[in-house]
Amino acid sequence: MTHREFQVRVQQMCTARKLLWHASHQAIACHGKGLPDMIIAGPRGVIFAELKTPGAKLSPEQARWKHALLSSGAWHVVWTPADVVTGAVGNALDEIAA
After folding, report:
1. CATH number at residue 33
2. Alpha carbon 8 to its chain's center
3. Which ranges of the chain have pLDDT less than 50?
């Protein structure tokens, strides 16, 4: 599964649960570099999701965002296509859905 196919799948899962989502493309602003791929919001929370294909690692900028978000108490996840198969993505989305 390509990164784009994976992102579309997560977007479909969000839409099916009536969650709001934003998928960032390439961040242009200096402070936006490394911003998580998706921001997903529901009535019971917000998830900042970095989507990675197998073998891909967080860049230093992505690691900074992850640390900053987690330090602030935000919900940050790094998902791979395997997380769709295991149900981890669906379970997390269900937690913030109505």
Report:
1. 3.40.1350.10
2. 12
3. none
The span from the first CA to the last CA of the chain, in angstroms, equals: 29
Domain count, the chain: 1
Picking from 72, 68, 71, 61, the residue whose alpha carbon sits closest to that of residue 30 is: 61
Beta partners for 47?
40, 75
Which residues, in sequence order, are CB contacts of 78 under 8 Å at separation 6+? 49, 50, 52, 58, 66
Is the whole model's pTM more than 0.70, yes or no?
A: yes
| Distance between CA atoms of residues 70 and 74, nearest Å | 5
Q: Whole-angstrom Cα distance, residue 26 to residue 45?
A: 25
Task: Show the domain range for 48.
Answer: 3-96
List the structure tokens of 12: 């479909």
Contacts of 98 (CB under 8 A, 6+ apart): 18, 42, 43, 44
